[in-house]
Amino acid sequence: MLQPFYTGGDLHARIERSNALNSRIPLNQKVRWCADMAAAVAHTHRQAKTYHMDIKPGNFLIDEHDNLALGDWEQSDSPATTLAPEADGTWDVERAEVDHPVGDRPRLRYTKCDGPPRRNVEDGVLGDCT
Predict the structure, then answer these.
(1) Which of 4, 45, 89, 120 is the most buried (most CB within 10 A)?
(2) Residue 62 and residue 54: Cα distance in Å, rounded?
(3) What is the 3-state secondary structure of the chain?
(4) Higher confidence at residue 36 or residue 77?
(5) 92 falls in which pLDDT band (50, 70, 90)?
(6) Are the CB atoms for 16 and 51 separated by under 8 Å?
(7) How far apart are CA 62 and CA 32, in angstroms?
(8) What average pLDDT score do residues 84-105 get?
(9) Model-level pTM?
């Protein structure tokens, strides 16, 4: 769903378009894209401590500056190690009013869910909020 926001489309489409026009993608562009892909995979494995499961040119999106971003994360199955704490329904999150924000980002405050049980979800999808 991010493709419309990336003006360059995806890497697969760019390669196919280049092939159809019988034109070469400049070597410096290929080098930059390889570095972007390696950085995305390294970040995924080393910092996020997760995996993607579907790395291919069509899942690399190209922004307005010709940088690549790895998209299409639905096959990652949202492992608990990288899933946002509020996503399983056992935690609530709200913007914390603090004197010391982190840069220009707001601080978030997580609390154990104390509201009514979640409804309209399959059993076992969300944690119990009772």
Answers:
(1) 89
(2) 17
(3) CCHHHCCCCEHHHHHHHHHHCCCCCCHHHHHHHHHHHHHHHHHHHHHCCCCCCCCCHHHEEECCCCCEEECCCHHHCCCCCCCCHHHHCCEEEEECCCCCCECCECCEEEEECCCCCCCCCCCCCCCCCC
(4) 36
(5) confident
(6) no
(7) 12
(8) 70
(9) 0.56
Q: Which residues contact 58 (CB under 8 A, 6 or more apart)?
A: 10, 11, 12, 13, 72
Q: How confident is the model at residue 126 (pLDDT cuts 50, 70, 90)?
A: low
pLDDT given for residue 56 in this prediction = 92
Tokens, residue 93: 């999150």
CA distance 113 to 129: 5
The full set of domains in the chain, from first to last, is 3-76 (1.10.510.10), 84-130 (no CATH)
CB 88 within 8 A of CB 121: no
